[in-house]
Amino acid sequence: MVTSHAARVRSLTYNEVDSNDGIATAFILRTLAVHPGGGILPNLREVRWYLYESGRNHPLAFCPPSLERISLHIDNYYFPEGSVKRLLYDLSSPLANCLKFFEFGIDSSTEKSAAITTALLSFLKSQGGLLELKLPYYEIQHPLTVSEICQALPQLRSFCGEMLNMTKEMFRGVLNALVSRGASLRCVRLTVLPTDELESISLTEMEPMLQLTVIEDIGLWLECTLELKVRDIQRMGQAWSGLRSLILFPDDGHGILLPHLITFAEWFPVLQRLAARFDCPSDIPSANEVPSRFKSLRRLKWFGAQIADSQRLRVAEFLAVVCGPNVEIGISRYGLDISEALDEMSPWEAGSEDAGLRHWIDAFHRVHEAINRMN
After folding, report:
1. 72 to each of 22, 109, 333, how far by Cα in Å?
2. Closest CA to 258 of 220, 309, 312, 221
3. How crowded is residue 4: how many other Cβ atoms within 10 Å of its Cβ?
4. Among residues 210, 212, 347, which one has the least CA distance to residue 274?
5. Torsions phi, psi of 33, nearest 5?
């Protein structure tokens, strides 16, 4: 009976402090304690492990060669540093070249994160076939770490990570390291927490990313101002001709001027999702002043929207025209939380949005459709 049940398990989640984790997981873990080894779960594809308080090691020795995805989240304030390092080392041999996806999040002090880097890099070197790497809450503090990751993972297609205490030079160094994997990278999502001296980032600092010519998904969450001019957006569109998803969110300072949506529409022909902090200037183009419309866009998310009452109708008409009726538009006065920035779905989910403005956008769509039918 045990063997039959275990053979059907494809995904396994374990949360050390969640008493509602489920009878099935608890039963499997007790069985594994009696029958160690990988044979008992021959079809396991994914594990999600959340470790908080326990000082005992979790070698996950039961993981079979069929495993392809691991999400490992550790609260290192309570979980001993030595156990974290031992866990990573112990995983290296049994899972060598097995994984396609690895997520490693560790809520810890800066000093402990630095001490664990060697163990993490050692583990990644055993995963030459890894396609996706996600490092939420793991504070990368030097471009050399990213460079070593890229050297260890020649087939990497997706990289998501948190950059801490970045200067402009260090940020460019991180991007240059990622460009070394440019032939394979399809997705790059970064949260960037700069030093106090770094007040803004422009295309000058982002320029290495323009070499990622096959990129399809870019996300940048910046704790500083983002400076983008029309010519910058044009250059980005020329370089990223296949881009389908784009997030540009400066958490501090000004966002992108809303009329620049016209430039995005002209230079990003296959873009399907766009999320950004936009600033609303006093002069919003009228419907007759919008020469370009999005061709493929399906979702627009406007974070940090500050719209004066006197501008609401003009903004609604502008968005209706530049986006068209097939775009789902979400407008929120709130920002994008850093904890959601690296997630695949969270930035695009509907939250506390401006329903009134959405109503006016829909009304303008109906008006323009009626005019087009008359013509």
Report:
1. 18, 17, 33
2. 312
3. 7
4. 347
5. -65, -30
- With contact defined as beta carbons under 8 Å apart, do 126 and 99 qualify? no
Whole-number Å distance between alpha carbons of 67 and 150: 22
Residue at token pair 């994160």: 113
Do 304 and 334 meet the contact criterion of CB atoms below 8 Å apart? yes
Q: What residues of the chain score a pLDDT lower than 50?
A: 1, 22-23, 55-57, 59
**What number of other Cβ atoms are within 10 A of residue 207's Cβ?**
15
Tokens of 214: 């096959």
Distance CA 264, CA 296 (A): 11
Question: What span, in angstroms and rounded, lies between the C-alpha atoms of 38 and 260?
Answer: 55
Task: Copy the structure tokens of residue 124.
Answer: 């990644």
Query: Cβ distance 222 to 196 under 8 Å?
Result: no
Q: How far apart are CA 180 and CA 175, in angstroms?
A: 9
The single-letter code of the amino acid at 350 is A
Residue pLDDT, tens place only, 33-84? 565 555 677 788 998 888 776 544 454 656 777 889 999 888 766 667 777 8
**Whole-prediction pTM value?**
0.89
Contact 93/86 with Cβ under 8 angstroms?
A: no
Cα–Cα distances in Å, from 241 out to 107, 214, 222, 226?
Answer: 37, 8, 23, 21
Quote the crossing angle between the two packed helices 312-323 and 355-374, to the nearest 10°: 60
> Of 175, 153, 259, whose CA–CA distance to 222 is shortest?
175
Residue given tokens 């205490």 in the structure block: 165
